[in-house]
Write a structure and sequence with these properties.
alpha+beta; five-stranded mixed sheet; 4 helices; 7 strands; binds adenosine-5'-triphosphate; binds magnesium ion; Sensor protein FixL
Length: about 150
């Protein structure tokens, strides 16, 4: 069943903004002529919440968190980008393993399960999770869902 991804995402952005640190601004933008999509809303919401929670946690005050959605002919693409601590290159290949935490998290709390859940839930919708990260610069997560 189709739902309005833009309205859904605007609501998530608003909810997550409440959880953000001082002057962390969550900016949401959609690209595409179409705004409805057929995905599992609960699974998708859990994925996005996990990614934005990480962006908040692993970046500092006075920064932007960019959250985007795109619907094109063949895919629905979700991205969450921060300007935070980044992920050390040597840790990147382990990132989706359960209980794995990168070596630069310091005293930031976490169990290392969020991203493992994101990959599982995205996978249930045939989605692929990917990321690009540069230490001390930031991280971009992408989930790409094929549309039939
Ligand atoms: P939780 O289970 O509460 O989500 P967590 O945040 O530690 O705990 P994951 O969300 O699975 O676990 O993330 C795994 C690890 O990946 C984190 O511990 C952190 O080292 C790294 N990480 C994830 N997202 C980011 C990000 N946006 N910026 C920097 N590091 C990140
Ligand atoms: Mg997490």
């Amino acid at each position: 069943n189709d739902f309005d991804l833009v309205k859904f995402s605007e609501e998530i952005a608003e909810e997550m903004q409440v959880m953000a640190k001082q002057n962390q601004n969550i900016i949401y933008q959609h690209t595409g002529t179409k705004s409805t999509v057929n995905l599992d809303e609960k699974l998708l919401k859990n994925c996005i919440n996990n990614l934005i929670t990480n962006a908040i946690k692993y970046s500092g005050e006075n920064t932007f968190i960019d959250f985007t959605t795109e619907i094109n002919q063949h895919h629905c693409i979700i991205t969450v980008k921060d300007n935070g601590i980044g992920i050390p290159e040597a840790d990147q290949k382990h990132l989706f393993e359960a209980f794995f935490r990168a070596h630069n998290t310091g005293t930031i709390p976490g169990t290392g399960l969020g991203l493992n859940i994101v990959t599982r839930y995205a996978g249930l919708m045939n989605g692929i999770v990917d990321f690009k990260s540069v230490i001390n610069q930031g991280t971009l997560f992408t989930i790409s869902f094929p549309l039939s």
